[in-house]
Amino acid sequence: MTTLAEAERLDAEDELAPFRERFVPISDPGVVAYLDGNSLGRPLRATAERLRQLVAEEWGGRLIRSWEERWLALPEAIGDELGRVALGAAPGQTIVADSTSVCLYKVLRAAVALRPGRDEIVTDTANFPTDRFLVESVAAELGLTVRWIEAADVRPEDVAAVTGPRTAAVVLSHVDYRSAAIADLAAITRLVRDRGGLTVWDLCHSVGSIPVALDAAGADFAVGCTYKFLNAGPGAPAFLYVNARHHAEFGQPITGWMGAADTFGMAAEYVPAPGIRRALSGTPPVLGMAGVQEGVALLAEAGIDRVRAKAVALGRWVLSLADEWLAPLGFEVASPRDDDRRGGHVTLRHPDAERLSRVLIDNGVLIDFRRPDGIRVGLSPLTTSFTEVRAALDRIRELAGRPE
């Protein structure tokens, strides 16, 4: 059923519903539904308070002393908690640093360096632009060849078809940014490892939305952002993961002072810090990390398994509404219908999607348009309700049915 009563019943039974009160209310009265949390999550009340306290006390009161007292340890401390809560990573392998693009560049260069004599990097043509651009850039820098997977939904057999003794690294997204299709991280990692290559996983659309098990899968490297399902704020720092088995040989190309063995030794030559800290380069963005810390803490309280269960239920709800209301208006579902293969959003395809997206946003339904014809319905389990989704798709039905 797709009735309002059914939406209200689902909300009444939702164990995560109380968490909505932990977020700053949407101040714009014209917003019908915010369905773009898979691009930018909503702000936490705790983050606002944490920033106030940080500015007034740690920065305003303790001043430069806060670096030694607290701030220098934040990249690793938050990284360890993020690894525990959301990545299936033991301590000492995850660190908060830079943007996703910079983190990806670091680990990709490191991965290729660990496989001398191999001259190919593999990625897919449907991967996020940053991933594709950086793969091409690193390949050009080092004289390597890019092998492309021509598929929008990468499966192990697709990877098998383009990997072999020349493969240095395989760069893939765990969840496709357009369709929300989930790649088989464990199977692909195992396949690449058996062929002597290394895996680099982009977790931007999975971290905080679906359980990830990097250690169990034997993943080599991973990167991801924190401003989507972790709600850390616009431009909040990203993270990178390096499996402990690579730490002794891991070398990243942006060798700044924070990644040195003696940060304040001002040595004549660079000596890398032991372990994951060598992945750092410049001064940590302390204000941005406050949002990451609060977002991870909230996810720990909610539990990734409960978050995933609600994401699945919200996805089913969108599919039901889309089939009943939107299919007759020319919409098609572009995301997997299998719950186990669908991430935290549902993409609807329509031939007039670009124009409709602008109309929807102007009328209070905040979604994302993805070329050429996709409207992404982002489902953030800690903030999105079933009645909100129903109201949004009802508005989509109304607006799509109007003549231009």
Automatic annotation (TrEMBL):
GO cellular component: cytoplasm
Cofactor: pyridoxal 5'-phosphate
Domain of life: Bacteria
Transferase is among the record's keywords: yes
Gene3D superfamilies the UniProt entry points to: Aspartate Aminotransferase, domain 1, Type I PLP-dependent aspartate aminotransferase-like (Major domain)
GO molecular function, a single term: pyridoxal phosphate binding
Catalytic reaction equation(s): L-kynurenine + H2O = anthranilate + L-alanine + H(+); 3-hydroxy-L-kynurenine + H2O = 3-hydroxyanthranilate + L-alanine + H(+)
Family as reported in the entry's similarity comment: Belongs to the kynureninase family.
Assembly, per entry: Homodimer.
Function: Catalyzes the cleavage of L-kynurenine (L-Kyn) and L-3-hydroxykynurenine (L-3OHKyn) into anthranilic acid (AA) and 3-hydroxyanthranilic acid (3-OHAA), respectively.
Record-given protein name: Kynureninase
The organism's taxonomic lineage, starting at the top: Bacteria, Bacillati, Actinomycetota, Actinomycetes, Pseudonocardiales
